[in-house]
Design brief:
The complex is a heterodimer.
Chain A lengths: L10 H6 L5 E5 L6 H14 L3 E6 L4 H6 L10 E2 L10 E6 L2 H12 L2 H9 L1 H7 L5 H16 L4 E5 L8 H14 L1 H7 L7 H7 L3 H12 L1 H33 L3 E7 L3 H16 L4 E9 L9 H12 L4 H7 L4 H11 L38 H32 L5 E5 L8 H11 L14 H15 L10
Parallel strand pairs in A: 1-5, 1-6, 2-4, 2-5, 6-7, 7-8
Antiparallel strand pairs in A: 3-4
Chain B lengths: L3 E6 L5 H13 L4 E6 L5 H5 L10 E5 L5 E6 L2 H13 L2 H9 L2 H8 L3 H15 L11 E5 L3 H17 L4 H14 L3 E7 L3 H16 L4 E9 L6 H8 L3 H15 L11 H29 L5 E5 L7 H13 L5
Parallel strand pairs in B: 1-5, 1-6, 2-4, 2-5, 6-7, 7-8
Antiparallel strand pairs in B: 3-4
Helix pairs in contact in B: 1-13, 3-5, 3-6, 6-7, 6-8, 7-8, 7-9, 9-12, 10-12
The chains are: A alpha/beta, B alpha/beta.
GO molecular function (chain B): ATP binding; ATP hydrolysis activity
Pfam families (chain B): ArsA_ATPase (PF02374)
Protein name (chain B): ATPase
Chain lengths: 476, 330
């Protein structure tokens, strides 16, 4: 099954629809999640919507490009965008501790709030250990939505492995609050008492000992003080977390799973897709970043390498075979069909190719790796061909990983974003990403608007079919 | 030589793969290493093409020269029960704690306790000795959380020691910190030669140093081979374009079969190929800048080339060999 059997994710209708109020970008780390969120926010704003982008931990230069390198937990208007369509872009970076402090200040009286804020246990908790970030992201999202100042909120999820932990926040909080543990903590006097025993259904001598022994008297007291002080706020926490959870399930929310066409990232993406379905969260589709293309896809990797060998006088048997007529296709076809399992067989004589893994000394007669000393047209042409072969191998690998995902989840629409050679850290770069993200496939549109990425894909398809190699990409 | 190797890096840089290759490299020549996973992803099992790892140290690979690699996926809840058992002999109480939700609390909600357990377990493996007084593992390699979180993760015991100022938790936290801050530990960063990962690496190193944690080396992963430089691309695009096109055409004709080797097949390819070459040199220039930034960190640096077809078991062993060749095992 090829990717083309998956529906294309049309981004603009999602962004333009006034009913879309929240877009959540999730995915594993390093796939361009924050950049995607920022690019979508910019695009929606320039198409006329009033947008706020909530980022969790943006790279410094990306934050600077949006004017939010100050960590002040307040949305700031992003200057320099095209406002001709009447939109606005605001952006903010989540400050966990501040968000937590604000909740305490808003929901507890002055004295109680001070007691909480000064509690050492609270200070550690709010400074952002595993888990806090997820809760606070949820909380902030709820706050932003409640203010109703924006018609679209774009959220970037925390960079932790379990980027979907924030979905668990209400549940976990709930099970903790309903749990007996908190009651044990809050009623230390009862420990060992008959009421406590009855309540817990376990021998209290077993209970009070370990807690004290484990935590030390002073820590236990800190925790108890904290829990007691927070007591009145817990209900509110839970209500808001539940409300945010329901908000995420509502039709006004669109989840986007972000990935790169790599095995691990797409495996995580499949996990996210399944998880969102299990939680009945509305998934809009998959954003596949950094996809490679080639305008010369009809020239296969095998043939490019063979031609490069011919140009630089490769002396192996493989190269000699290529001089004969009619053998080539059969040979390279076999080589191609083996590549899925054994990358080494693709280019047995090419010591400079990427899949050889590590730099190796050039074998006599083969082209030396690195920059050729001699700039003869043959060497230059061979270099171009080798680069092309490398590109085609990347393409094939990406195609295989995408196909695997599509086979698992054919129902998920996909938007592909062509790889850029460098990093994105200004509005122009974000705009370019946004254009690639929203690329349309509508045949009625003028040619100039057909995005480059898609054109490349069409050419690849044509190229593969032309060379009769398409089936090679189907290797399991 | 350090015995606990903590491997961090920005997401997508190949942290888990490098950790696994490092474990293999350090196990070579008859050594025994433990590869520890703390984020519950089962990435190690996938790399070594085995079923999901249980919470149990299990041999997963044989290193060149007869060494052994064991693997352990640490589960926070199991680690807590372990810990209770080991330090307090609380078999029944452990169950009782679970029943009232204390284990859930400890492993998911209580600040940092999860991280305390994970680092504690790794340090226990580092210090463990057999009956003859020899270390059970020559090296422990940890596939740690990403750069942005690693300092906080490793430093959690300092925080806990401050929270629990006396008692067994305090003592345990202090003991773990002693291992983590000693020369026995080295924190390595995996990076790509791209702007953001290099920046994060340098930020991460600054954070580690500020926290007094020992910095190891930098592993530059997925390096592309340089095939053509700027001058070559310039020559191919301008001065010698026609000759290059002829050479291409000729080579494709020679290697193509019958009908497909027709004249004129090459010409439409020239521009796209040149475009790819320009992207290649742009990428090389970017890598060059990244390499210079990494060099300024003045740390031991290792380079691993991109495995064009993705990492499989054979690729992992190649990476391990390369790391050894570059002196990672001292």
């Amino acid at each position: 099954m090829s990717l083309d059997s998956a529906a294309r994710l049309e981004m603009d209708p999602v962004l333009d629809d006034p009913r879309t109020r929240i877009v959540v970008c999730c995915g594993s780390g390093g796939v361009g999640k924050t950049t995607t969120a920022a690019a979508l926010g910019l695009r929606a704003a320039e198409r006329g919507r009033k947008v706020v982008v909530l980022t969790i931990d943006p790279a410094r230069r990306l934050a600077q490009s949006m004017g939010i390198d100050e960590l002040d937990n307040v949305p700031r208007r992003v200057p320099g965008i095209d406002v001709s369509a009447g939109g606005e872009l605001h952006a903010m970076m989540l400050d966990m501790k501040r968000t937590f402090d604000e909740i305490v200040e808003a929901h507890a009286d002055k004295e109680r709030a001070r007691a909480i804020l000064e509690n050492p246990f609270y200070q550690s908790l709010s400074a952002g250990f595993a888990g806090t970030q997820e809760y606070m992201a949820m909380e902030k999202l709820g706050q932003l939505r409640a203010r109703d100042d924006w018609d679209l909120i774009v959220v970037d999820t925390p960079p932790s492995r379990s980027a979907l932990d924030f979905l668990d926040a209400p549940n976990r909080l709930g099970s903790f609050l309903d749990g007996k543990f908190i009651k044990v903590l809050m009623a230390p006097a009862k420990l060992g008492g008959r009421a406590g025993m009855k309540f817990l259904g376990v021998g209290m001598s077993v209970m009070s000992g370990p807690l004290n022994k484990l935590m030390g008297g002073q820590l236990l007291r800190d925790v108890q003080t904290f829990v007691a002080a927070m007591d009145t706020m817990f209900g509110g926490f839970r209500t808001r977390a539940d409300a945010t959870y329901r908000l995420l399930q509502a039709p006004g929310t669109a989840f986007l799973v972000v990935a790169a066409p790599e095995r691990d990232a797409l495996r995580e993406a499949a996990y996210f897709v399944e998880r969102l379905a299990a939680e009945r969260m509305p998934l809009a589709g998959l954003v596949l970043n950094r996809v490679h293309g080639s305008e010369a896809a009809r020239l296969s990797a095998e043939r490019a390498l063979a031609a490069a060998e011919a140009l630089t006088g490769g002396s192996s048997e493989y190269a000699e075979n290529l001089d004969g007529d009619g053998i080539v296709d059969r040979d390279s076809g076999q080589a191609g069909s083996r590549t899925a399992d054994d990358p080494g067989t693709l280019t047995p004589t090419d010591t400079s190719s990427p899949e050889s893994g590590f730099p190796q000394p050039a074998s006599p007669g083969a082209n030396a790796p690195g920059v050729p000393a001699e700039r003869s047209p043959e060497r230059l042409a061979a270099g171009l061909l080798r680069l092309h072969a490398e590109r085609m191998q990347v393409l094939a690998r990406e195609q295989r990983t995408r196909d695997r995902f599509t086979a698992l989840h054919p129902e998920v629409p996909v938007a592909e974003v062509a790889a850029l050679p460098g990093d994105v850290h200004d509005l122009a770069g974000l705009r370019a990403i946004g254009e690639r993200l929203a690329a349309r496939t509508d045949p009625d549109r003028p040619q100039a608007e057909v995005p480059r990425q898609h054109k490349q894909q069409e050419q690849q398809e044509r190229g593969r079919q032309q060379d009769g190699q398409y089936e090679r990409y189907e290797a399991p | 030589m350090s015995r606990l190797h903590v491997v961090s890096g920005k997401g997508g840089t190949g942290k888990t793969t490098v950790a696994a290759a490092l474990a293999l490299a350090l196990a070579a020549e008859g050594k025994r290493t433990l590869l520890v996973e703390v984020e519950g992803r089962q990435g190690i099992a996938q790399l070594f093409e085995t079923e999901a790892l249980p919470y149990e140290e299990r041999k997963i690979a044989v290193a060149p020269g007869g060494g052994e690699v064991f693997a352990l996926a640490i589960d926070a809840e199991q680690a807590l029960l372990d810990y209770l058992q080991m330090f307090y002999k609380l078999g029944g109480a452990g169950r009782a704690l679970r029943k009232i939700g204390a284990i859930d609390f400890a492993t998911t909600i209580a600040p940092g306790l999860r991280d305390v357990l994970l680092t504690g377990k790794a340090c226990e493996a580092v210090r463990r000795k057999d009956r003859t007084g020899r270390f059970v593992y020559d090296h422990v390699v940890m596939d740690a959380p990403p750069t942005g979180r690693v300092t906080r993760f490793l430093n959690v015991n300092d925080e806990v020691a401050g929270l629990a100022r006396i008692g067994p938790i305090h003592n345990q936290a202090q003991a773990v910190m002693r291992v983590l801050k000693s020369p026995e530990t080295a924190v390595h960063f995996v990076t790509l030669l791209e702007e953001m990962p290099v920046q994060e690496t340098s930020d991460g190193i600054a954070e580690l140093r500020a926290a007094g944690l020992p910095v190891g080396g930098v592993v530059i992963n997925m390096v592309r081979p340089a095939i053509l430089d700027d001058a070559a691309v310039e020559a191919a695009a301008n001065g010698r374009r026609e000759e290059v096109a002829r050479a291409l055409s000729h080579a494709l004709e020679r290697t193509g079969s019958g009908s497909r080797g027709r004249t004129g097949f090459a010409e439409p390819l020239v521009e796209p190929l040149l475009q790819q070459a320009r992207e290649h040199t742009e990428r090389l220039a970017l890598e060059q800048r990244g390499r210079a930034d990494v060099a300024r960190l003045s740390l031991p640096t290792y380079e691993l080339q991109l495995l064009g077809d993705g990492v499989d078991l054979a690729g992992l062993y190649r990476m391990a060999r390369e790391l050894r060749k570059q002196g990672v095992a001292g």
